[in-house]
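Notes from hallway chat w/ T.B., transcribed later so I don't forget. T.B. wanted the structure written out for a chain they're using in a teaching module, and asked if we could keep both sequence and structure tokens in one place. Agreed to drop them here.
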Amino acid sequence: MQKLNIGQYTEKYRKIRKGNENKILFEGIHAWKHAYRFEAEFEEILISDIQQIEEMPENVLGEDEKKYLFENAIQVDEEFFDKLIPYKTRSKVLAIAKKPTYKIEEISEDKPIVFLENPANPENIGMVLRISAAFGVGALVSSGRNNPFTASVLRAGAGLIYAVPTFHMEFSELKEKLKNRKIIVADAEGKSIKKNIIPKNSIIIFGTEREGVSQELKDLADKIFKLDMQLNVSSLNLATSVSAFLYGGEFI
């Protein structure tokens, strides 16, 4: 078990957690596992409970993944580990990796792009990341104050940032780079998604649960579609809406 300088490590992890560096932080075994499976370039891995890792069942952590951790991770004591992040984690694994970089112009036009307009909750961005990875979208783009590369987002997204090209930019910049994409808005004022076809080369815009998509972006839409809901049900959680829209729509 190595002795490390807690002051230096606390400051380093505090900065990387914010998502503004060229490195990103994964907290917990599930986030680390998916980053590993999608070939993240790790700079550093810390663990504080080797026995916990050893006892994880195969469906949680494979033998090759355990072997990689044991060969590459630094073991620290639990008190040191807990000082590096602002909350408790059930699995005592922290990992720093190189932030993935992509060019939005290179995203396949056979896959839709999901755009989140100023999402308020970092965990919702993470959940949309998981949904996007499961569905196989071309890219996830998020605007506004919440950076999709923060540790909170990556934790909620189960480390799937390497499975889906992810960007933090405003819609004006995205539209300028992708002039030929159809713009689809998900909004309660639109036509039923069940009776319409969504082009695969779409940018699909989702707003917040409370405010929805801004009028500015609605005015740019080629089509506006809604999810059919029961009477008096006003809205769905952002991540739930994205999931229902992607799996409920017909993409051609």
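Follow-up for T.B.: Residues 10 and 83 are 7 Å apart (CA to CA). Might be a good example for the class.
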